[in-house]
Known about the structure:
Layout: H1 3-17, E1 24-27, E2 31-35, E3 40-44, E4 51-55, H2 65-74, E5 81-84, E6 90-98, E7 104-112, E8 119-124, E9 127-131, E10 135-136, E11 141-142, H3 166-175, H4 177-186, E12 190-192, E13 195-197, E14 206-207, H5 210-257, H6 261-276, E15 284-285, E16 288-292, E17 299-303, H7 310-353, H8 361-371, H9 376-379, E18 389-394, E19 397-402, H10 405-413
Antiparallel strand pairs: 1-2, 2-3, 3-4, 5-6, 6-7, 7-8, 8-9, 10-11, 12-13, 12-14, 15-16, 16-17, 18-19
Helix pairs in contact: 3-4, 5-7, 6-7
Amino acid sequence: MDYYTLRKLVLRIAERIKGERILDIKGNNRLVELKLKTASLLFSFDPEKAGLFLTERRLVEGEDHFSRSLKRFIKGLRIRDISVVEGDRLVRLSFLRVDPLGRQKSLVLVYEILGRFLNLILIEEGIIKLARRGMETENRVVVPGRKYFEPKRVFSNSFNLPFVNNAIAEEINKRGLEAIKEELFSSNFWVYDGKIYPYNVGGMAKRFEGDVLEHFLKDFLKYMEDRELRDRKAGIISLLKGRMKKLKSDVEKISKNMPKEEEVERYHLFGTALLTYANNVVEYTNGKYKLPNPYTGEIIEIPIVDDMDPVRLANYYFTKHSTSKRSLEAARKRLEEKREELGYLEDLIWQVENVSSIQDIYPIEEILGDLGLIKCSRVKREVTPCSLYYTFDFGRYKVFVGKNSKGNDYVTFR
């Protein structure tokens, strides 16, 4: 069963069973049956007839070990959703259950239609709870208690729709959709069982053209754009979080090492007291002068540095006050700049997380280039005409609309 057929089938099944409660579960070596109120959902494990089926007949009566174990987890739960993983033959049924402590747990039943590697896996909060077929390979481990990872997609010359090997992907990105479309129309490509071949498979395949080609190209380009967008967003967010971590460390160091305002004002007080009572300074103990506070009259102790007389010591404290005050102001300014940048980067992360198209990521990359977070060479791109304008038909006329000022100049003067 190919991806397109499976997707259409699941959409029709979802209309019937979404919200239904699992009444019972039966199973044998070829089928697992989820019994609902009005129908039964069947998962086939016959490699020659792999697929998902909805029937009103009861086809399985007995129970095997897997169906009994599965019943303990999902019997009585309602089906919240059923969907197909984009571009792959993986069906996901989601449930929600409440444990004895009243905590809600998300359960997902994944049906993997992967040829001879057919499997049915129950996952709770990302951890495998139950698997019909346990396996351990170099690329993947499917056993209870381990984290669940989707099967790795393998690109080859004969590929599953809507994916394509890397060579054709690079050609589409490099030369554009129209050129590849013409090549595929003019070449001898065939489709059989959801796969593309350069030859007619036993005379049973259909030509790769018409609606099949259109669906393939649209889905493939969407997949490539989504993948590039996802990778770019992840890279930018990682970069921004790394920069924010450094900024927070800088803020902590500056706050720790900056002069305290009380100390700065104390230096000024020491200098003022020494000048005010310079002629009456006679009493000192343990290397400190004892003088009245010029403003409050309280006795304060002023440390003596290098046996300086009162006048020289007053100038020393005034100098220290001015330098400390400048250091404090500079530290405050740096703190303000760092905190402003932190807030700006948080806004950028929010923008990146909410970007929905690859075109919207380019201005953010240019901002990162201006900030010096990425190299300018990474930001520079060749501007293609199709990125400057879009078109639509108006009667017998084709209308060109610029996306920005550059686009308007292009459609006006070219």
